[in-house]
Amino acid sequence: MSFSPCPDPKIGDLVAIDAIETLIIPRTSDIGGLEVRRALPSAKRRLVGPFIFFDRMGPAILRPTDALDVRPHPHIGLSTVTYLFDGNIRHRDSLGTEMVIKPGDVNLMTAGRGIVHSERSPEELRTEPLPISGLQTWLALPDHLEEINPAFANTGVGELPVLRDAGMEARIVMGKFHGAGSPVKQHAETLYVDIRLDPGSHIQLPANIAEERAIYTLDGSVEVAGENFPADRLLVFRAGDEIIVHAAQGAHFMLFGGAALPSKRYIWWNFVSSSQERIEQAKEEWRTGRFDIVPGDEEEFIPLPENRPMER
Length: 312
Description:
The protein contains one helix and 26 strands. By secondary structure, the protein is mainly β. The protein has a seven-stranded antiparallel beta sheet with strand order 1-22-19-24-17-14-13, with no helix packed on it. The protein is globular, with a radius of gyration of 19 Å.
């Protein structure tokens, strides 16, 4: 999924406590009644592990006339991960995939050398108000896998392991956590966990669960190292520290990260690559219609943006 860019917030996004390396306040935009908060990339942090893009969608109730309609658009060099808490999105792509994404499912679309997809509210549900709440993230592919063949995989919510203990529930979306592992295929070392804490409970995040670690608070507030943080904050933790997250009033947050990429990544629109030249090639291919079409959604597409700067 791709949304229009919005500027970084003007207030600072660093906090002076040892446990937290960076505090990011997401940039917010409104897309036809749907509020989207973009935490990555930001001016202060480009990636956390392979995560190079982190969007919080909603929560919102869309009128039928404002249904989600993200027209066909291309990607290279990344995998998109769609994870919903509420609502449904119909995914179509140039591989011929058509699937309605449901809450708790994991949709992993690997672009590799190139893929085109669209994301829309299901036509059959547009007679009523449409709830939508979820996350759209991108994972940059490792150098040697940037040009692999495109692929799509859906993992149902019932296939994801869930840990429960003393006021804590953790659903493992990707990677391994506290001895349990997700079946979702990974192209790089990746950690992605959906965590809920009851009021007064806490969870320990060991230093060795991932080289780079962060949390994004969805609901409630969390306390880390004596500081309290409200919802819609991304906290990047210092490497090598054990972290304890408390929730005096209860909280819902995502833990994510993984191994740091060994080389730089460039972002331009929906393209991610270790090579600026490869991005220029993808721009020309989209401009001249050399990407594949999306079966069932052939009539529309998002044109190549003009005068958009490269994100470095």
